[in-house]
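Fold it.
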Amino acid sequence: MLLDQPNHLAEEIEKIEIKLLLEGIYQRYGYDFRNYAFSSIRRRIWYRAQIEEVHSISEFQAKVLYDSDLMRKLLSDFSINVTEMFRDPGFFKVFRLKVVPILRELPYIRIWHAGCSSGEEAYSMAIVLHEEGLYEKAQIYATDMDEKIIERAKQGKITLDHMKLYTKNYQKAGGTKEFSEYYSVTDNYVTLKPFLKKNLIFAHHNLVTDHSFNEFHMIVCRNVLIYFNKQLTNRVYDLFYDSLSDGGFLGLGSKESINMYKSSSTYEEIDTVERLYKKVK
């Protein structure tokens, strides 16, 4: 019995408190984190609760529901803002080799970077399309649920100390020019060249609650679904399926697989290592 196991009882009560907090956030602010992976969301809640010097989730819930500024901080904590330019270079190299030849035959190209964080991978895609002579007929949509990080992405500014790694990534990804051609340096920052923003739209979109907003020839959503539970993961896969054109491509992260999708047979595997798939039904 739970009453005979204090540690288990405390864990059960904590789960109840977290469920109530997430339900309260949904009812009060409209953000739905109820189907995020529990261990991940628990860690982020306690991180902010400790900063706020509260000692229980119930106490924290009361503060969050009455304090919209605190909610904004918690929303930022919930956002997954880990990214870099040409992250996992092999993915972009495979994109050049296996997807670009097909996109080249299209009259126009629409690509969606879902969960784009601060935009580095979307800018990387713009560079690849530019080098392949496709950027002029392309439109890249880069979305995230965190409006603050979207505003940062629009600036196209990156700290200078990242550029050594980003240059190596670019070269491994099959870059054909000097990477320095794509940015200018000011003090401790680099600013990406304005032409990379020409056909790149940053916008707010929540994968959990929002719907499809266009039809795309490729969707890139890498290292986001690992934070969702199975129910939510399938919902997002449904969203991607509905958003892809026939024969469209889906790019996932290295720890994600279309095999988790209840309708995985609707996709053909294009590259096993780089988790690249093609919609076939």
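The longest helix spans residues 6-29.
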